[in-house]
């Protein structure tokens, strides 16, 4: 399989994630965009690991680490969103900035 | 074109399509569920690149828990649906332009840098080999990461506690 297939797919997913983070007003949706970008990174890591046939499995182990970090990030992010909602009764980032 | 490539291209189309639907969907719950499809397709891509263990972790952690957490948050902030729930900002066209520029720039860089390289179908990602690597070569980062995860969970509990007793 050509190495370019996963790399181009990852680039496309990353671009869509950037759009999601920039265009959405709901804070939860912005977090979903961040998750999408992290998944693009994971795809790149696994693709380069498979291409390089690394003896240390760096790419796949780092992918596992990224998934853990992403889980921690979404937990903290959603806790912040909940605190925000409790304080301001909104999760609209445009209104929060006002 | 081999069967692996065909399946990969189908999964890629599914992933990109459902990601687009997720990021443009008008309803938040629909967006979260489309994200499940995207993450599942990415897990399929991992399997095709012989990274089976990562694929299962992806399904367990992302599809199993992260998305459930997101749906919980949508319910708790009491706007799971409704016309206003998933509005986009006024600068959505600029955002689309920036996203397109990022994708095209990254994609062009990858095409220039790695054209013609092939992934060989060696089996590299079984649970046994990843476990060996993780607990022989990567033990210290693994333990530090468990500390980070614990700190994040404690922080999340403190942040989301109700405000009356603070």
UniProtKB/TrEMBL annotation, chain A:
Listed transmembrane segments: 61-85
GO cellular component: NADH dehydrogenase complex; plasma membrane
A Pfam family annotated for this UniProt entry: Oxidored_q2
Gene Ontology BP terms: ATP synthesis coupled electron transport
Broad EC category: translocase
Membrane topology: Multi-pass membrane protein
Function: NDH-1 shuttles electrons from NADH, via FMN and iron-sulfur (Fe-S) centers, to quinones in the respiratory chain. The immediate electron acceptor for the enzyme in this species is believed to be a menaquinone. Couples the redox reaction to proton translocation (for every two electrons transferred, four hydrogen ions are translocated across the cytoplasmic membrane), and thus conserves the redox energy in a proton gradient.
GO terms, molecular function: NADH dehydrogenase (quinone) (non-electrogenic) activity; quinone binding
Entry EC number(s): 7.1.1.-
InterPro entries with a match to the protein in the record: NADH_UbQ_OxRdtase_chain4L/K, NUOK/Mnh_C1-like
Protein name: NADH-quinone oxidoreductase subunit K
Subunit structure: NDH-1 is composed of 14 different subunits. Subunits NuoA, H, J, K, L, M, N constitute the membrane sector of the complex.
Keywords: Cell membrane, Membrane, NAD, Oxidoreductase, Quinone, Translocase, Transmembrane, Transmembrane helix, Transport
Catalytic reaction annotation: a quinone + NADH + 5 H(+)(in) = a quinol + NAD(+) + 4 H(+)(out)
UniProt record similarity statement: Belongs to the complex I subunit 4L family.
Domain of life: Bacteria
Location(s) in or outside the cell: Cell membrane; Membrane
Species for this entry: Aeromicrobium yanjiei
Lineage: Bacteria, Bacillati, Actinomycetota, Actinomycetes, Propionibacteriales
TrEMBL record, chain B:
UniProt key word Lipid metabolism: no
Top-level taxon: Bacteria
Transmembrane segment boundaries: 6-24, 31-49, 55-74, 94-114, 138-159
GO terms under cellular component: plasma membrane
Protein's membrane topology: Multi-pass membrane protein
Coiled-coil ranges (or none): none
EC number(s) from the headed UniProt entry: 7.1.1.-
Annotated keywords: Cell membrane, Membrane, NAD, Quinone, Transmembrane, Transmembrane helix
Primary localization class, coarse: membrane
Function description: NDH-1 shuttles electrons from NADH, via FMN and iron-sulfur (Fe-S) centers, to quinones in the respiratory chain. Couples the redox reaction to proton translocation (for every two electrons transferred, four hydrogen ions are translocated across the cytoplasmic membrane), and thus conserves the redox energy in a proton gradient.
Family of this protein: Belongs to the complex I subunit 6 family.
Annotated protein name in UniProt: NADH-quinone oxidoreductase subunit J
Organism: Aeromicrobium yanjiei
């Amino acid at each position: 399989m050509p190495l370019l297939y996963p790399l181009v797919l990852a680039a496309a997913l990353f671009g869509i994630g950037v759009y999601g983070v920039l265009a959405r007003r709901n804070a939860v949706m912005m977090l979903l965009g961040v998750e999408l970008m992290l998944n693009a990174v994971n795809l790149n890591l696994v693709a380069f690991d498979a291409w390089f046939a690394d003896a240390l499995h760096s790419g796949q182990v780092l992918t596992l680490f990224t998934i853990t970090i992403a889980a921690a990030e979404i937990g903290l992010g959603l806790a912040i969103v909940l605190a925000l909602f409790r304080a301001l009764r909104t999760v609209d980032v445009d209104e929060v900035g006002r | 074109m081999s069967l692996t490539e065909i399946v990969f291209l189908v999964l890629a189309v599914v992933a990109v399509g459902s990601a687009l639907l997720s990021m443009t969907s008008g309803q938040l719950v629909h967006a979260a569920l489309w994200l499940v499809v995207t993450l599942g397709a990415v897990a399929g891509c991992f399997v095709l690149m012989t990274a089976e263990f990562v694929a299962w972790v992806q399904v367990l952690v992302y599809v199993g828990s992260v998305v459930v957490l997101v749906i919980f948050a949508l319910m708790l902030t009491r706007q799971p649906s409704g016309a206003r729930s998933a509005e986009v900002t006024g600068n959505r066209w600029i955002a689309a332009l920036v996203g397109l520029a990022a994708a095209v720039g990254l994609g062009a860089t990858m095409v220039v840098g790695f054209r013609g390289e092939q992934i060989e179908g060696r089996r590299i990602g079984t649970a046994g080999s990843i476990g060996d690597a993780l607990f022989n070569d990567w033990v210290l980062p693994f333990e530090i990461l468990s500390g980070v995860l614990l700190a994040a969970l404690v922080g999340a509990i403190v942040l989301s506690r109700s405000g009356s007793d603070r």
